From TrEMBL:
Keywords: Membrane, Transmembrane, Transmembrane helix
Domain of life: Bacteria
Protein name: TraX family protein
One protein family per Pfam: TraX
Source species of the chain: Hominiventricola aquisgranensis
Transmembrane segments: 21-38, 50-67, 79-100, 106-123, 130-146, 152-168, 180-201, 236-256
Lineage summary: Bacteria, Bacillati, Bacillota, Clostridia, Lachnospirales
């Protein structure tokens, strides 16, 4: 005889949760808004403000991708391939020319972070703890310097953002606090940027535009490891969205400015 349960108090059914697929869509949406501001709608500052959310989500998903991929070599090669494919659309969008060497697209940033994580994890698994700590320190310093010298998107701070989600990976309270404090330091203290006056209860305070990247922690903290929808076409759509949408925006901008 089947047991009937009345008034179930299963809390997991009520828990708000975001899948990896949803995080990708959220990040792509906010990135599109930021790039709309950079091309077609430069007067709409709110687009780039809310667009600050995109990069931390991409950095977080890069770290998750490292620990969940079935083939790390293929994962890195995909990033490398789309970094190369995306460079010309990125140069056209940001520099207005086919070759714009003073700024590289964001996939290079993520790839640098991924390579650093792979190095640290390799040492962590096979060597003593003190060597891992030394390797992590050198990798962080080198990542900051190399990312800045190569002028990848978000420079060395972008590479460090990937490392933040690696070092503070998990849902323990100190991991969440570490993510918040580290992102605040990177985005507000290091990157800085425009300040916007905001009135709250009659008092005027200034909000750093780049500090709005901290809002990315809301969807990130709602992610609990569930992959969600996944297929090869969807995977490549997510990769292709970056170069394709930039190219489309450039073409539309050129058409409008004729």
């Amino acid at each position: 005889m089947n047991k009937i349960v009345i008034g179930s108090t299963d809390r997991s059914a009520k828990r708000i949760e975001i899948s990896a697929a949803a995080l990708h869509i959220i990040a792509m949406t906010f990135m599109l808004m930021d790039h709309l501001w950079a091309t077609l709608l430069p007067a709409q500052d709110w687009l780039t403000c809310i667009g600050r959310i995109a990069f931390p989500v991409f950095a977080f998903m890069t770290v998750e991708g490292y620990f969940h991929t079935h083939n790390l070599k293929k994962y890195m090669l995909r990033l490398l391939l789309f970094a190369l494919i995306s460079e010309i659309p990125f140069d056209l969008m940001y520099g207005g020319t086919w070759f714009y060497p003073i700024h590289q697209n964001v996939i290079w940033t993520l790839l640098m972070g991924l390579l650093g994580i792979h190095l640290m994890e390799t040492v962590h698994k096979n060597q003593k703890r003190w060597l891992y700590v030394l390797t992590a320190f050198v990798t962080v310093v080198f990542g900051m310097i190399f990312g800045t010298l190569c002028m990848v998107d978000y420079y060395g701070v972008g590479v460090l953002t990937v490392f933040v989600f690696y070092f503070f990976r998990g849902r323990r309270w100190w991991c969440l606090l570490g993510q918040f404090l580290a992102l605040y330091w990177l985005n507000v203290e290091l990157l800085g940027g425009l300040m916007y006056p905001v009135q709250i209860f009659g008092a005027e305070i200034e909000v750093c535009q780049q500090g709005l990247a901290l809002l990315a922690l809301i969807p990130i903290w709602l992610y609990r490891g569930r992959q969600g929808y996944h297929s090869k076409p969807f995977q490549y759509i997510c990769y292709a969205f970056y170069p394709v949408h930039m190219l489309v925006l450039v073409l539309v901008l050129n058409f409008v400015n004729r």
